[in-house]
Automatic annotation (TrEMBL):
<feature type="transmembrane region" description="Helical">
    <location>
        <begin position="319"/>
        <end position="340"/>
    </location>
</feature>
<feature type="transmembrane region" description="Helical">
    <location>
        <begin position="252"/>
        <end position="274"/>
    </location>
</feature>
<feature type="transmembrane region" description="Helical">
    <location>
        <begin position="286"/>
        <end position="307"/>
    </location>
</feature>
<protein>
    <recommendedName>
        <fullName>DUF4153 domain-containing protein</fullName>
    </recommendedName>
</protein>
<keyword id="KW-0472">Membrane</keyword>
<feature type="transmembrane region" description="Helical">
    <location>
        <begin position="352"/>
        <end position="373"/>
    </location>
</feature>
<feature type="transmembrane region" description="Helical">
    <location>
        <begin position="91"/>
        <end position="111"/>
    </location>
</feature>
<feature type="transmembrane region" description="Helical">
    <location>
        <begin position="65"/>
        <end position="85"/>
    </location>
</feature>
<keyword id="KW-1133">Transmembrane helix</keyword>
<feature type="transmembrane region" description="Helical">
    <location>
        <begin position="186"/>
        <end position="210"/>
    </location>
</feature>
<feature type="transmembrane region" description="Helical">
    <location>
        <begin position="222"/>
        <end position="240"/>
    </location>
</feature>
<keyword id="KW-0812">Transmembrane</keyword>
<feature type="transmembrane region" description="Helical">
    <location>
        <begin position="145"/>
        <end position="166"/>
    </location>
</feature>
<feature type="transmembrane region" description="Helical">
    <location>
        <begin position="120"/>
        <end position="139"/>
    </location>
</feature>
<feature type="transmembrane region" description="Helical">
    <location>
        <begin position="393"/>
        <end position="413"/>
    </location>
</feature>
Length: 414
């Protein structure tokens, strides 16, 4: 190792590759050689690099925490509006829970990214219009179009959240890719914080119960609600201030889960054939099938968004290519099952919504799969795959808006 360091001291790329091949041996050999190399600027640089100790957890500024906690309190108050105003919970939560969650996150990133006033007004106007529309729909809890509107509005709100995160300017496309990765990071950060909060809640309720003070109802109704409202905001802020904490974790999780999910989906499809389950006649099974498809699609997108440009990704790209091709097969089965149900039992809002959504996903998967295969063959780069992911997102947005706005009217609010 010492001879290699001497030989490649004037070749930065070779020295870097040597360091990455065996960091421990490189570090020890470099320290042994440094007395004779210390006159070299390159050696001085490497000494600083090898002795650098990264800073600990950065907690941010007091003013920023004030904004985060203020938005969390407002979100918690909004979540308690049924109790404050005497509104029926079954009416309120399906229509407004998404606005509470994504509204607070969008407001945070509008402030954090210092968006222009006109951009903030666009986001606010779109969000408020959607809220007004959903709350004016007839109060029929058994309405399929109401459920579809509430579900598809979530994607519209997620898009507005993405717009506040990505902002405008020349780098907007790359920021959308960063936003896709951020969603995975946010999930990774929320899980341990939620587990810690759940443990703290259980201990608190248990300890107060031991001294004869049953606080479970109060704690659940108030403390827990405000804690859940704060969870995504606090997680988002910690990711912003400490990107090094969760960035690598989400990448590792995606790299580990992609082959496992590939194995699971392959085994599941084989088990379907063995069990005789039929998505053509079993509605619940078809819904599960589509849920599996959406989950796998999300994993593919988050994994691609998190892949590093600096290291070779051929193994990960190969796994994601197989996973996307398998998803195309799952989608084809789901589409044929929906078409069969439409032919047999007629048109319903649910069937039309699932048919349209699956068709759009199939087209997107075909495009992304083509780019992934191009990467494996050396004809495309990773940026082409990311552009295929990002460029298609407005198609989903248009479909979500159409389902939310038109389906209740077309199907008579049924």
């Amino acid at each position: 190792m010492k001879d290699s360091i001497r030989q490649h001291l004037a070749e930065p790329r070779q020295l870097e590759l040597l360091y990455r091949s065996n960091k421990i041996a490189f570090r020890q050999a470099f320290y042994d050689l440094y007395p004779e190399l210390q006159a070299s600027p390159v050696a001085a640089f490497w000494r600083e690099r090898l002795t650098y100790e990264p800073e600990g957890l950065h907690w941010g500024k007091q003013k920023e925490w004030g904004i985060v906690l203020g938005l969390a309190v407002l979100a918690g108050i909004a979540a308690k509006l049924p109790l404050i105003l005497g509104i029926n919970e079954e009416f309120f939560y399906p229509r407004n829970l998404g606005f509470i969650l994504f509204g607070s996150l969008s407001a945070f990133f509008c402030w954090k990214n210092q968006l222009e006033t006109r951009q903030v007004l666009r986001i606010a106007a779109a969000g408020l219009s959607g809220m007004l529309y959903l709350n004016l729909l007839p109060a029929n809890p058994n309405s399929d179009t109401l459920i579809l509107a509430c579900l598809h509005v979530l994607f519209v709100l997620w898009w507005l959240f993405g717009f506040s995160h990505a902002g405008g300017g020349q780098q907007r496309e790359k920021r959308w890719i960063a936003f896709l990765k951020f969603n995975g990071d946010l999930l990774v950060m929320c899980v341990p914080l939620a587990m810690a909060g759940g443990l703290l809640s259980g201990l608190t309720i248990g300890l107060f119960s031991l001294i004869g003070l049953p606080i479970e109802a109060f704690y659940t109704e108030y403390i827990l609600v405000f804690g859940l409202a704060a969870l995504p905001l606090v997680s988002a802020y910690l990711i912003q201030t400490n990107p090094q904490v969760v960035g690598k974790i989400s990448e590792v999780v995606a790299s580990l889960f992609s082959p496992l999910v590939l194995l699971m989906v392959t085994s599941y499809l084989g088990a379907i054939l063995y069990s005789g389950k039929n998505p053509y006649t079993d509605r619940e099974f078809l819904l599960l099938f589509n849920g599996l498809l959406v989950g796998v699609l999300a994993l593919i997108f988050f994994s691609i968004a998190g892949l590093s440009y600096q290291r070779k990704n051929r193994w990960e790209i190969g796994v994601l290519t197989l996973l996307s091709l398998l998803s195309i097969l799952v989608n084809a089965v789901a589409l044929s099952a929906i078409a069969f149900r439409l032919a047999e039992w007629g048109v319903t809002p649910n069937r039309m919504a699932v048919l349209g959504g699956n068709a759009l996903i199939l087209l997107h998967l075909l495009w992304v799969s083509k780019k992934l295969i191009g990467v494996l063959r050396g004809k495309e780069d990773l940026e082409a795959v990311r552009k295929a992911m990002q460029s298609y997102l407005p198609v989903y947005l248009v479909w979500a808006i159409l389902v939310s706005l038109l389906f209740p009217i077309l199907f008579g609010f049924a």
